[in-house]
Amino acid sequence: MSRATKRKHVIKEVWLDNLELPSKNQQVVRIVASRGNNLHEVEDANKAQFLVSMPTKFRKNVWIKRGDFVLVDPITEGDKVKGEIVSILTLEHVRFFKENKCWPKEFEENHHERPSDELFVNTNRPLPQDDTTSSSGEESDSSLGVEET
């Protein structure tokens, strides 16, 4: 199978298929951080944090970021890595889980904590300054040392 065909099937599986309820041993967790080497630190509904691994089929085909939800299958023999990602949950998955009352109450968004009209503020860039007090057009020629002839 070519790389493009494999990617097509993985994307189709993530976005279109697989609207199934989690089994008894699977759990919904939130991504806290990426730890490298296809390991991600996650947080479960009880606020316990542990590492999970991303299976080979998702690597370089699907990207996840902090705050995304995934379905995890536990691994019993691992000391540090406690689970493996089974599927990446989209908004449709979340709605389906909420309708079937399988969504953890601890992951319900509180609209008082995070208003929807606020956008992410990038702290790496300075905020634009309002220059309403200074006249930029009148002083620009004299400040640059340009002589009028």
TrEMBL record:
Residues 108-149 are annotated as: Disordered. Residues 17-90 form the S1-like domain. It comes from the Eukaryota. It holds the Pfam family eIF-1a. Keywords: Initiation factor, Protein biosynthesis, RNA-binding. The keyword Protein biosynthesis applies. Belongs to the EIF1AD family. PANTHER family: RNA-BINDING PROTEIN EIF1AD-RELATED, TRANSLATION INITIATION FACTOR-RELATED. This is Probable RNA-binding protein EIF1AD. It comes from Timema podura (Walking stick).
